[in-house]
Amino acid sequence: xxxxxxxxxxxxxxxxxxxxLTSDLLKKGYDVEVTMTENATxxxxxxxxxxxxxxNTIYQTFDEHTEYDIHHISLAKKVDVFIVAPATANVISKxxxxxxxxxxxxxxxxxxxxxxxxxxxxxxxxxxxxxQDNIAKLxxxxxxxxxxxxxxxxxxxxxxxxxxxxxxxxxxxEAALIEPKTLKGKKVVVTAxxxxxxxxxxxxxxxxxxxxxxxxxxxxxxxxxAEVTLVSGPTSLKHPYGVKTISVxxxxxxxxxxxxxxxxxxxxxxAAAVADYRIEDPSDIKIKKSGDDMSLHLxxxxxxLAYLGENKxxxxxxxxxxxTNDVIENARVKFLHKNCDMLVVNDLNEKGAGFxxxxxxxxxxxxxxxxxxxxxxxxxLAMAILRxxxxx
Length: 392
Ligand code: PMT
Prior knowledge:
Blueprint: E1 4-9, H1 15-27, E2 31-36, H2 46-53, H3 71-78, E3 81-87, H4 89-96, H5 103-110, E4 115-119, H6 123-127, H7 129-140, E5 144-145, E6 149-152, E7 158-162, H8 166-177, E8 187-192, E9 197-198, E10 204-205, H9 212-223, E11 227-232, E12 244-247, H10 251-261, E13 267-270, E14 277-279, E15 298-300, H11 304-310, E16 316-323, H12 327-337, E17 342-347, E18 359-360, E19 362-366, E20 369-372, E21 376-377, H13 378-391
Parallel strand pairs: 1-2, 1-3, 3-4, 4-5, 8-11, 8-13, 11-12, 13-16, 16-17
Antiparallel strand pairs: 6-7, 9-10, 14-15, 17-19, 18-21, 19-20
Helix pairs in contact: 1-2, 1-8, 3-5, 4-7, 8-9, 9-13
């Protein structure tokens, strides 16, 4: 069913970004309703939003032209999520203290669903303890706060206060809309991407992992309500919204990071493609050409998943396997040897599976079952993996 987003727009110069946000949400198939504070209409005309959304943009509580119902109540009942973006210091303070003196703030009080606040203001105002207290209060009341970014502000000051990027706002909306929050109160750790093993300051050994699979799992875990830590090898992907990301390079660094976060975790998913070998003695200076051939001496890397399996207490452990032959047989051996609760195997020979692509085709192995999954997007598969893991 089509979801409806209510966008509350208050009077910051970042109002123009709310227009782009509206347009992007509509392109994604959402129904969008907009309410503005009266001051915000001085930056952008309500007509801009109305033309995009095909709904009346309301900014006056006692507008005689709106339909004859109690509009702030009917709108609060219609929409699935309420995001205030940009949220000024004034609006934040009113919302935190139950002041309802215009249409936006009244509807906010009447709305019972997920609420998101995206502040945008000058750094000094944002850092002011009054505003910080009000933001903390809104968090306590269950609002999701999308932190502003650091950058050059309209007033030419440099600092925190820029409205979060539009894709971050959309990620927050999408996370808020996912129900039920089956992983609420759980700590999930995900590994993603390749590891790189240094040969010299110029060269390294690695593999084709883009990180897409692991990042999709981290995003999905956050959407399901978990506190998520992503331990990521080098990738070109943007860190997922709401997820604590620890960047590592080599297998040894990934192991050290995992040792720190593992004891306190509930679910661990090892989607990273960890190098099995590293150079025994990497050079600190660039290795020069000499002769027609050269050899590198490789030594075994620690098996991180096997270490986690050996030290498992309450955690549910999900490994991945990348296979090219005897797929299920090889994966079953890894499942048993590494003491996994679940193992997701992808076959590099299948079109649409494995490295770099946005889709995957996998089989999911548990102690008493092997389930072949159809081709699906990595986002869909991430949800399926987490739901299954949660059921174990
Ligand atoms: O990142 P993408 O481009 O989206 O690609 C996704 C993926 C193909 C990388 C992912 O779906 C995947 O299959 N990840 C695991 C790849 C892999 O290393 O498989 P493996 O069969 O070599 O390892 C088995 C398991 O042991 C894995 O969970 C791996 O993280 C872990 N392992 C491996 C070696 C090692 N030294 N330590 C480990 O922990």
